[in-house]
Here is the input.
Amino acid sequence: MSTAPLILHVIAGLGIGGAERMLAALATAPRAAPHRQIVADLIGGGALAPEIRAAGVEVRELGLSGPLSVPRVLSALTRLIRETKPAAVQSWMYYADLLSLWALERSGRRNETRLCWGVRCSDMDQSRYGAALRWTIRACARRSKRPDAVVANSYAGRAYHQTLGYAPRAFPVIPNGIDTARFRPDDAARQRMRAALGIDGGAFVALHAARVDPMKDHATLAAVAGLRPQMIFLAAGKGTDALAGTANLRGLGIRADMPLLYAAADAVLSTSAFGEGFPNVIAEGMAAGLPAVATDVGDARMIVGETGAVVPPRDAAALAAALDAIAAAGPGERALRAAGARARIEQRFSLARCVAAFDALHRDGTLPAE
Here is the structure.
C-alpha cells in the first residue's frame, strides 16, 4: 500500500468552469514527490470527470440532486473520509465547504485530517442568486474559524469575504496557476482555427470566454461588438450559443478546444461587472500571447499589469478604445506585447507555482509567502 499522503478534493460539480478547471489541473499535475488525489463530485456527471480519470485520478460521484438528498450525500462523504483517511480535505466553493466541514467532523478524523476551504469570487451581487446560496454563504462565514485554513484565489476575494464576516485561523491567497504548455502561441493552430471558423487571416478577433451569468455582463460585450463592427468577437462558454446581437458577435457555446481559440484571437476580452476573483480566461489568454482588455474587477489589474488595459466595469466605450489601441499596433509592437503577456504569466502565475503552494499547505500546513 502506498504511503504517499492522500488529498481529497470536494466540489459541487465538475462542469466546465474556472474553479473546476483549476481543480482538474491541480489534481492531475505531475509532481516530483508521491502524491495521491481523489476528487469527490457532490453532484456527478460533470464534463471534466473523464479528463480527470484519464489522468489516473479517482473521481467519486455522490449524486446530490437537491435539498432532500443532502443527508444521504453527507453520509456518503463522511464514509469516504473514514475509508480513505486523507491527510487533507480541500473543498471548492461554498456548498462543498459546508458539507466538507460537517462530514469531516462526523467522521471522527477531525484531529488527523487538515481541512482547507476554497473561496473563488470577490464582490458577488448576492441578490442575483438564490436564497440557498445566500444562506450557505452566511453559514460558512459563521463557521469560518473551524477549518484549518480558507484559501482564496485572489486578494480581492479575501478582502470581500472578510467583509462578510469570514475570520479564519489562516487566510492565504494562492493565485490560480496556468498550464503554459497548454496555453501558448501557436501559429499553425491559429490558421487552422480561423479557417474552421471562416475568419479572414487579417481580421481582428477578440475572444470572450465566460458562461452566460449576470457577473460576466454579456450585455456590455454585445455593446462593444456594436461599437466595433469591423472587429470579430467570439463568445465561448455555456449559454453563449443563444446570444443575440450584431453579426460580428459569434456565440460558440461550450468548447473543449479553448487553447485553439486563444491561438486564433488577437486579444482576450473580459467584461465582468462584479464577482470575479482570479479570472482564469485573462491569464490563459495572456499565456497564449494575447494582450488582455479587462474590467477592473477582482484581481484583474494585478494579473494584467502593464501588458494590457484595465478599464471600469460596464464601460463599453473604454473597452472598445482599448481594443482599438491593440488593433492599431504594428507587427513589432504586437510581438513585444505577446512576449510580455506570456512572460508575466510564466513568472508569476505558472501552474507549477500554484501546485507547489497547495501541496505545501496540504502536506505540511505551510502557508505561502505573500
